[in-house]
Amino acid sequence: AADGRLWVGGDGGLVARTAGGGWRAVADTLDVRGLTETADGALWLATGDHGLVGLRDGGTRAFRVPDGLPTDHLSFVALDSLGFMWLGAGRSMLRLHLDTADAFLDGTGEPPSVTKIPASAGHGGVSRWVRRVAVDEDGAIWVPSMDGVVRIDPARFAHQHAHHASVSVEALRT
Fold it and tell me: What's the distance, Cα to Cα, between the start and end of the chain in Å?
């Protein structure tokens, strides 16, 4: 984190190492599968049982199935350069706009709209064991999948909101 903290998540929850070197439990009841921090300091957690959890300025809010998330069992979270959040959800990937997720976290907006991208769109399915993805300098997201490594180009998906037909993914079989 920009303030010197180190975030560590796992099936025992989320802990933070403070700038002074001590450890502090932040969310010890969550099965944290992936996490990412936004430029404004919000922390987003993909959890194995509580959906997408956002933390900011001491406030916490979960985006779950009753709010419109297709599943509460997530494996990763990644941010692209276009303002979208990508989530691993079983054999599907989910995409939602960060601005709407932020508004929901702050209590000023409705739950975000989620686009579900099934394995049939070309990514082959995300393993539930995937906990880390990479975003390269070109903004592409690299995701380990059931069929190898998948490269997703978010720019080719930016204007697609309701359908998955134009998702641009490349499966790299290894």
Answer: 33
**Rounded to whole angstroms, what are the CA distances from 13 to 27, 31, 103?**
5, 5, 24
Look at residue 155 and give its three-state secondary structure. Answer: helix
CA gap 44, 77 in Å, rounded = 7
Q: How big is the chain, counted in residues? A: 174
In 10 A of CB 83, how many CB atoms?
Answer: 14
Provide the token pair at 151. Answer: 């490269």
Question: pTM higher than 0.85, yes or no?
Answer: no
Which of 24-33, 55-64, 72-81 has the least mean pLDDT? 24-33
4-to-47, 87, 132, 144, 154 alpha-carbon distances in Å: 24, 26, 21, 29, 30
Residue type, 27: A
